[in-house]
Write a structure and sequence with these properties.
This protein has 22 helices and no strands. By secondary structure, the chain is mainly alpha-helical. Helix 9 packs parallel to helix 11, helix 14 packs across helix 16 and helix 15 runs antiparallel to helix 16. The N and C termini lie far apart (69 Å).
């Protein structure tokens, strides 16, 4: 396979560690160097275009430049004598660009069967599984290749972060923490391992342990779970919302705080400036739900309605786009439930959300991120005038307490339920 070794490794290091290293010129600097070294290097185009696609910040339906970049990569591949592996990489990228995430993953997995140390195939598939909420495939994809990665190989320790995340998303919390800590012992700046440990503490309701871990290394974390709302807002204000993951997490944090009764002031309007340009993208349902969260919070009803109607239209003829295929049965009713809740129609919100509670995983993201919608259902049930819904809310809280004992958030919700209905 033709390569530009130094720039490709430097790029890979940043992508896998999830860190933009300015001393290397960052992501953009490395990609520019790859393209300058050989403008017709097919894998250079796969890397640059593929990274933009998995960032989910732009839609090939609307962005002619991005669609053109995909087309150019395919044409370059067809005009050159490239290896079978390179050809598969191009195929996977093209499938992903059409929203066919499952088939793109199948192709990346085909690459990994013959080339288990192909880090690009592993990381791209990991991200795609994440967007589909495909928890078990995300875990097993890394497990299958781990034995082939030897300690002397560059970035081999970073696989522990990827594997740990798959373990925690399939509820192997203790093993996930152990593997992530092994990764951090080897690579202290591996963001995915840090991320994984933080998630384990969140899912096990080990709030103090999680705070100590994050603050001990100078890391920042959300602490609304403990009820320290002002501190949480200070952290929110200090963080830049650059990537799409930052943006959706910022949306979620404001929504969680509002459900706790915290006034977030004009932060919804500020965040709307970031999300509103993406209203028509519809790249992932997960993004759509968070964009809707912002437009509802900012009381921008026309944007909210436009997002819903756009998703409804795409659901009618989804083609091979896996996210649009799910829109009609999962995405649209979840959007409608959020809109009903926002309008104070809690009964309708429960009726829409409750039947979907075990299908919400399909919108992608992590268990911790999707928990926002579990909380929304509980709040709607507690606020509903329907006595059956109120009982349902209590049942959901008992269930939640069984899964996450000693959660301060669950206990606060239980107290609120008693105050409302006793």
């Amino acid at each position: 396979m033709k390569t530009t070794p130094n720039n490709s490794v430097l790029f890979g290091s940043q992508y896998v560690k999830w860190r933009n290293d300015e001393t290397l010129g960052g992501f953009e600097g490395c990609i520019s160097a790859i393209q300058a070294a050989d403008p017709n290097f097919v894998m250079g185009h796969v890397i640059s275009t593929g990274l933009e696609l998995v960032a989910t910040t732009s839609s090939t339906r609307l962005d002619e430049r991005l669609a053109g970049a995909v087309k150019q990569t395919v044409e370059l591949a067809n005009s050159q004598d490239i290896s079978p592996r390179e050809r598969l990489h191009v195929k996977a990228m093209e499938l992903f660009s059409h929203g066919n995430f499952p088939k793109a993953c199948d192709v990346w997995e085909d690459i990994l069967v013959d080339h288990p140390t192909d880090l690009l195939a592993l990381k791209f598939s990991h991200d795609a599984y994440f967007y589909m909420g495909a928890q078990t495939p995300m875990r097993d994809s890394v497990a299958r290749v781990l034995p082939y990665w030897k300690p002397h190989m560059p970035l081999s320790s970073c696989l522990k972060g990827l594997y740990s995340f798959g373990l925690l998303e399939t509820r192997f919390y203790d093993q996930a923490e152990k593997v992530a800590m092994e990764g951090l012992a080897l690579t202290p700046d591996d963001a995915w391992s840090v991320h994984s440990v933080a998630h384990v503490c969140e899912m096990k309701a080990e709030v103090d342990k999680g705070l100590k871990f994050m603050e001990g290394e100078g890391r920042k974390t959300e602490i609304y779970n403990k009820g320290q709302y002002e501190a949480a807002l200070q952290i929110y204000d200090a963080q830049a919302s650059g990537s799409m993951l930052d943006t959706v997490d910022a949306s979620s944090m404001l929504c969680r705080l509002e459900m706790e009764g915290v006034c977030v002031k004009d932060r919804w309007q500020e965040l709307l400036q970031v999300t509103q340009p993406h209203t028509d993208d519809h790249v992932t349902l997960f993004n759509d739900l968070h964009f809707l969260m912002v437009s509802l919070g900012a009381k921008e009803s026309r944007t909210s309605q436009r997002l819903l109607e756009g998703l409804q239209e795409l659901a009618k003829e989804p083609g091979e786009n896996q996210q649009h295929q799910l829109a009609g049965t999962v995405g649209v009713p979840m959007c409608q439930a959020m809109m009903e809740y926002n309008q104070g129609n809690y009964n309708q919100a429960v009726e829409l959300l409750y039947p979907l509670r075990y299908r919400m995983v399909d919108i992608g993201g992590s268990d911790a991120q999707r928990d926002l919608f579990n909380q929304l259902l509980i709040h709607a049930a507690m606020k509903s005038e329907n006595k059956h819904h109120q009982k349902l809310g209590r049942c959901l809280l008992v269930e939640r307490d069984a899964v996450r004992p000693n959660s301060p958030l669950t206990h606060r919700l239980m107290q609120r339920a008693r105050a409302l209905h006793d």
